[in-house]
Amino acid sequence: MPKNNKKFDILIVDDDPQIHKIISKMLSAETYSVRSAYSGTEALENVSRAKPDLIILDIMMPKVSGIEVCNKIKGAADTKDIMILMLSAKDAQADRIEGLAHGADEYISKPFHMRHLIRKIEHMLATKGGNNVTWPQ
Q: Model-level pTM?
């Protein structure tokens, strides 16, 4: 995990409570601050209250899809810089391209290896954190 004066805030957006439980446990152990939203609507409300540093976003959710959430977040001036990692069961190359085309910064398919997800998040936040991020030796 990047060592930094700031505790990064991550919002998990998925309609599957098991995904929240697994990812929250791992991210909390890595000392990230973790919030949860179980729908696209809840995610947008959550972001409007407090902007996270990174959003882990599922694509397939009822009512408001992850693609729509991504479009709204990346299309607004005050939220466009929030990093989005799409985490989806849709694993075809076309799905990845679509997710990235709609503004996602990274894309990981389910099922996923937790260590891979953590490394991807570390890399994204190191990029966002700039020069004040240092890695353990």
A: 0.84
Domain assignment present for residue 16? The answer is yes
Give the three-class secondary structure for 46.
helix
CATH number, residue 27: 3.40.50.2300
Residue the block writes with tokens 């490394």? 119
Q: Does some domain include residue 91?
A: yes
Where do we find the tokens 């939220």? Answer: 79
Contact partners, residue 92, CB within 8 Å, separation at least 6: none
**Domain assignment present for 2:** no
Rounded average pLDDT per 10-residue block, the chain, 137 residues:
65 94 91 93 95 94 90 94 86 65 84 88 80 38
**54-77 exposure pattern, b = at least 16 Cβ within 10 A, e = fewer:** bbbbbbebeebbbbbbbebbbeee
Looking at the structure of the chain, the number of domains it has is 1
